[in-house]
Structures are given as structure tokens and as C-alpha cells.
Amino acid sequence: LIVFGFLTSLLLSAVLYHCRQNVPAASHYLLPEYSLATFQCDIPLLSWSLAVSMTLCLGCLSVLVALALSVYVLQKLCFPYFWRDLLFLQKVVRYGVKLEVFKLTSSVRTVLDRFLQQVQRIPDKPFVIYDGNVHTYRDIDRRSNRLANVFLEKANLRKGDCVALLMNNEPDFLCVWFGLAKVGCSVAFLNTNIKSKSLLHCFNSCGAKTLIVGSDLVEDLDGILNSLLSDNIQVWAMRSWTKHTEVHSLLDKLESASEKPVPAALHAATSLKTPTLYIFTSGTTGLPKAAVISHLQSLKAAAGFWAFGATEDDVIYVTLPLYHSAASLIGVGGTIELGATLVLKKKFSASQFWNDCRKHDVTIFQYIGELCRYLCNQTKTELDKVHKVRMGVGNGLHQDVWQEFQSRFGKIKMCEVYGSTEGNLCFMNHIGKIGSVGRSNFFYRLLFKYDLVKYDIVKDEPVKDQYGFCRRVDKGKMGLLLSKVSAISPFFGYAGSKELTEKKLMRNVFVKGDAYFNTGDLMAEDHEGFIFFRDRVGDTFRWKGENVSTTEVTEILGLVDFIQEVNVYGVQVPGHEGRGGMASIIVRSGFIFDGKKLFEHVVRDLPGYARPLFIRLQEVMETTSTFKQQKFHLVQSGFNPSKVVDPLYVLDYKQKSYIPLTDTIYQSISAGEHKL
């Protein structure tokens, strides 16, 4: 517009000039000496013409500036996150296109392939720092090669076999994982907290016939070793020798094993949908379920850090257990994708956290909400903001802890990620809005179909219309989050019984024949597109960063002789993330409640996070119209002895018993003085 206005003004000036001279235009161009003379005597006219030109130019420029300013203001008022959304989505789409190219060309590149690329590119760069020792990309590659050769020659493992891995956080977790992957085996990550019955169930569900166990966990197998051996499961320990003749040692065989890579054909993948891992998650069926993790899911998770803006220069601190998808798929996979460095910790320590960050120049850390709360509860020091941490990636961070964390430790960008291990939907809060678990917008909805539907908490079921279809909630209202199963968002389900997979699906949700993954989470989406977690429904709640299956706990408690009926649920505990376990119990006729016996039973058969913290004795168990146990009112009443008329008990490790929950103990728990 500016150029057009300027040229038009010059043309107008030329016309006025020739009209005033009353000379044909042709004469003007044919008689240059005449033109020059005229030019010398028409300076005022020319100045006036140029003034007109400049005025028109400035007018056009003003219109453009006003238009640009209006667009800018409109965008800031109505679409404040437009450009950040667009740039973030552009990265997501670009990565998705790369995965689609893998499908079309049958040239599948897995996380292991990416690791081998990084070994060639940056062999001497630190990959894992653990307990003060540095392991380069080449170091991990060579040790995993040794293990792969042992697995082939000594353990007789073959491509397609499933192998269970029971290890705490350590570099050998990665070496064993990669060694098995190089042989072409799928790997089942076992939760190190699970007990005998659940552990045996894990082998049956994923079909593993080999177990690799860490050196510090061998003794934990004493109670089930005979059962494993009777099921023809071979056990290998990361030791030079074992006292059990039936348990094979690995470390002594590594010394003579070759560092040469095994044939690449063993781990070559032909489809992104091929299962590569099994990660166990607690659900409504009681015992752990083996979520099928395909190469596609692994690659998507590995892009998380990159999507949030991480680079190969970052140092990533992981204290979460590697048997969880957050640490293994996002943490380790994301480090490999970037070619960055991973600082690995065996267990989270609030007192050592910031010292470790300063010592290793950590720039990114992984978290769960409880971890950040523990850090905020530490004594304040002058070094709280002395570190290089710029980003945290995780989930479950409550708004109050989020604000306190940033106020105390600096403006660290907290990037919330929402998604279950087996789920087909992921939200990412790339904006950093406090309290939100993720971000959605028009572009996101075009790619990933999800809906929030009305849910009756009392009846514990979705609300249906007269035609039997679910009803969507309005913006800002709470609803059950459902994610449509499609080619873009497939649901791979669980290993074992197909019923487990089918139970997580809802069919005929809005139209006949559709299928949605039921997240089991009550969420809300505000008018700006931010997603907020509200609560969980069904038979699962989270405590200490773990999913607790109420059905599993119910089955274990039901084995106690004095318990006739039990209803397990989660209650909010002041100062803690998630929900603490509570069990409402009916004592069998002719028996009395025995706190010591119950304590011994839960400690022996349940992991720490799944043990009920509180017991409520009832005479009658409330049920719904469909004879389901009623949890809603129990959850609402909580464990306050001044509001609950039934006898209440609390788990006490010092007295090794469930003791009466008094007002004094309740106040101590509320004040954070009583450790749970």
C-alpha cells in the first residue's frame, strides 16, 4: 500500500507539472533542455507535488499501523496464547509427521535406534551420572552389548521373548533394558514394592519366562522363588555368585562376554505398533495390569522434553523409579532423544536434592506433586535460589505448592504433563499456567478427539440422555474425560485377558459404534482451553505417587479372619498430595477388631503406599441401588473423629498396630507433625 501510494503521488505530480507548462508531453521528453529550464523555474510546484506524495504515504502507513495495532490488541484480548500454541503445535505436528513417514516407508526408528545413533555421534559424552560415577554413551552401549551376548549364549533368550526386570534405579537397569532390546526381547518393568501374590500375577499376565533381578533385591524373592521355578521361570541376578543354586549369576559371565554388537536384525522393528515394554499399572481389577507399550508410544513419550524446549546441553535429574513410565519413557527416552545427560538417583531425597542439582549443574528435573511438596517442607536456606534449574517436568502439582515452589526456589518453568501409562491422550501445559494439567485449543481438538461428559458421583456412572448416549458438559464444568480411539490415537490395552482392555473402553458414547478410552478422571476445561484435574472416579486413587487399587486392597484385607466386609477408598489428608487409604470394615459376628493382627497382615502383604492409613468400623455397609458399595459419603466424611460417630483407627508403625484415632492425633496429622 505504501509503495502504491508513493507511485500514484509521483504520477499525479508529473501530470500537474505538464499541465502548468501547457506543453505536450511528447515535447517535454523530446526537448531535454526545455525540460531542464522548466524544472529550474517550477521548484514550488515540485515541492507541492512531493508534499502530496509524502502525505499520501504517511496516510497509508498510518492505516497499516492502526490495522496492525488493532490485530495485535485483538489477538492479545481474544487469543492471548495464539503464537505460543501455534509454535508448540508446529513442533508436535512435525514430530508426528516423522512418525507417519516411518509407517509409510516401513523404516521404523525406535528409541534403541536413536540411542545407537547418539553413541555414534557423541560416544564420549556423559549419558548417566550415578552415585558420583560417570557413564558415557559408549560405556552403556558396550556393557549392554556384553549383556546381550550373555542373554543369547547363556540364557538362550530369543527375539520375541518377554523378560521381567526387577531392579531399583541404577545404570545397570538401563544396560539390562537395552541389552534385552538388542536381542529383540520385550521387557516387563516390575514394581519393586509389590508383594508375592501380585508379583506372581505379573508373570502370568505378560507371559515372561525369565526374570532379571537386581543384586539388592534377590532376598525379596525368598517367599516366591519356589513358585517361580515350578513355573519354569529362570532367574538371573546381577551378582557374581548367589547362595541359591537355582538362581543364575550374571556379573561373572560379563567378564568374558564380547563387547561386539549382536546382529542388528535381532532388534530391527517392522512396525511402530510392536510391543516393546510392559509397564504395570493398578486399576479396578485388583491385581496389577500390564499396559502394552509399543514403539509408537515410546517415541511419543521421548519427545516430551524436546517439545517443552529442552536441548542436548541440558542436564536432567531423575529420582522417580524407572519402572514407572514417567522416568523410563519420558526421562530416559527424552534424554536419549536430545543426546543430553541424565543424573540418576536411586531414591528421592529432599535433603540432598538441591545439593545434587548444584553439584551436577542440573537444568531440568522430573517431579510428581508430592516431591515438590517435600522440597517446600525443607528448612529454608540462603542457597534455595542458587542453582541452574530452569524447568521441571511432571504431574500432580497442586496450585498452592506450585506457587510456593516458584516463590522459594525461583521462576522455574513447571511443565505439567497429563496422561496415563496405557492411555491414548496426553495434555501438556506448555504455557506454564499455575494449576493446569494441560492445554487444549482448536488445533489440538482437530487432531485429538476428547470430550468431558456429565458424571453422577453418587451413582458412580456417566449421565445418559433418553437415547442412552452421554451428555457433554459446558465449558468450566466438571466432567469425566473420555478420549476417542482412532488411528491417530490408538489404544493398545493390556496384556493377558481381553476383558481388561474392554473394561477401559466405553462404546456407543455419542453415536452407535464409537469407542472411547475412559480415563477415570474428572476434569474441567476453562474458556481459555486450560485443563484442570478435579478428582478420580471408580476404584483407584493415588498416594505417594502410586496408583492404589481399592479392589486389590479389599481382597487382601478380606483374608483377615475377623473381617466380614470391607470397603476401601481414598480420603484427602491435609498437607499431602493425592488421597490416603481408608477402609470401612464390618467385624464378623463373634470376633473383635484386632489392630495388631491387621497391622501384621497389611505390612506383610501390601506395599507401603497401599496400606490403609485409617480404619472405620461400621455395623452396616451402605450400597447403591445396583448393590455397589457406596463410597461417596464415606469419602466426604473423611477421618475426623469429631465428625464421624463410628470408631476410627490409625496406622501406627511405632506401636506396630492400628490404634484409636483421637482428636489429638487428628490435630497432629492435620498440622503435619504425625508422619504417615
UniProtKB/TrEMBL annotation:
Which membrane topology term applies here? Answer: Multi-pass membrane protein
What EC identifiers does the entry list? 6.2.1.3
- Could you tell me which Gene3D superfamilies the record lists for this protein? N-terminal domain of ligase-like
Q: Which GO terms describe its molecular function?
A: long-chain fatty acid transmembrane transporter activity; long-chain fatty acid-CoA ligase activity; nucleotide binding
An example of a Gene Ontology BP annotation on this entry?
long-chain fatty acid import into cell
Source organism, top-level taxon:
Eukaryota
Q: Which residues form the signal peptide?
A: 1-17
Q: Where does it live in the cell? A: Cell membrane
- Catalysis: reaction(s): a long-chain fatty acid + ATP + CoA = a long-chain fatty acyl-CoA + AMP + diphosphate; a very long-chain fatty acid + ATP + CoA = a very long-chain fatty acyl-CoA + AMP + diphosphate; tetracosanoate + ATP + CoA = tetracosanoyl-CoA + AMP + diphosphate
Which Gene Ontology cellular component terms are annotated?
endoplasmic reticulum membrane; plasma membrane
Q: Which positions, given as ranges, span the membrane?
A: 45-74
Domain AMP-dependent synthetase/ligase as annotated: residue spans: 117-440
Q: Which InterPro entries match?
A: AMP-binding_CS, AMP-dep_synth/lig_dom, ANL_N_sf
Instruction: Provide this UniProt record's keywords sorted from A to Z.
Output: Cell membrane, Fatty acid metabolism, Ligase, Lipid metabolism, Lipid transport, Membrane, Nucleotide-binding, Signal, Transmembrane, Transmembrane helix, Transport
Record's Pfam families?
AMP-binding
SUPFAM superfamilies, alphabetized: Acetyl-CoA synthetase-like
Family of this protein: Belongs to the ATP-dependent AMP-binding enzyme family.
Q: Please give the name of this protein.
A: long-chain-fatty-acid--CoA ligase
Gene this protein is translated from: SLC27A6
